[in-house]
Structure formats: structure tokens, C-alpha cells
Amino acid sequence: EVQLVESGGGLVQPGGSLRLSCAASGFTFSNYPMSWVRQAPGKGLEWVSHISNLGFNTNYADSVKGRFTISRNNAENTVYLQMNSLKPEDTAHYYCNASILSRQFWGQGTQVTVSS
């Protein structure tokens, strides 16, 4: 059974940093790319970042480019999202996503709130 468990969210002041983690199990983690997606209150899903299976290629939404960094540790089956220079508009529920054999898998998400 594929499981994705996010952690690391919380309340942070504007300009602060957080690191999200997503622990994966139930599939061969190193074979698949991973993504982070977020949903702000009252809005739809927004893709944030993507990393290839071995971590050599990464992509970011324009809204987070230069502030967020995605990485992964295939030995620990974990993908990370380092978020710096956080803004109030980054407030959202952040989800880890895996696309495996044309099926989408999601974790339960972790809440990030950026507020003074």
C-alpha cells in the first residue's frame, strides 16, 4: 500500500523558513518522481515543485522560484521542501504527490500558515 506522510508545517512569520518532509512507503521510491502541491484557503490545487526520481532535475512554480528548494533522499524514502523567505500568500495546505503507473497518490498534507 502506497503511503505518503507529510510533516513539518506550522505557523511562521513572514520572511521565515520551514522545511517540509514527506515520508514514502509501499513502492520503490527511487523509481518515481515526486511533487509538492498546495491548496490555499478557498482556492484550487497549485503545483509547487517537482523532482525527478534520482533528484537530478527539479522544477518550480514561478511563485516560489528562488525561495523554495525541493530535494530527496532515496536511501530514506523521503522528499523535502525547504521554504525560505515565506510570504503570507504561501499560506496553504501542502501535499506530497506521487504519480505511479498513471495513478495519483497523495498524503494527508501539512498546514503552513505565514502570518505576523
Describe, in plain words, how this protein is organized in 3D.
The chain has strands at 3-7, 10-12, 18-25, 34-39, 45-51, 58-60, 68-73, 78-83, 92-100, 103-106, 110-114. It is an all-beta fold and 116 residues long. The strands form two sheets. Strands 2, 4, 5, 6, 9, 10 and 11 form a seven-stranded mixed beta sheet that branches. The model has no long low-confidence stretch (mean pLDDT 97).
Instruction: Show unreliable segments.
Output: none
Query: What is the helix/strand order?
Result: EEEEEEEEEEE
The biggest beta sheet reads: 7 strands, mixed
Work out the helicity level: under 10%
Write down how many β-strands occur, each being a DSSP E stretch of 2 or more residues.
Answer: 11
Key terms:
seven-stranded mixed β-sheet
Short synopsis of the structure:
The chain is an all-beta fold. It has strands at 3-7, 10-12, 18-25, 34-39, 45-51, 58-60, 68-73, 78-83, 92-100, 103-106, 110-114.
Ordered list of secondary-structure elements with their pairings:
Layout: E1 3-7, E2 10-12, E3 18-25, E4 34-39, E5 45-51, E6 58-60, E7 68-73, E8 78-83, E9 92-100, E10 103-106, E11 110-114
Parallel strand pairs: 2-11
Antiparallel strand pairs: 1-3, 3-8, 4-5, 4-9, 5-6, 7-8, 9-10, 9-11
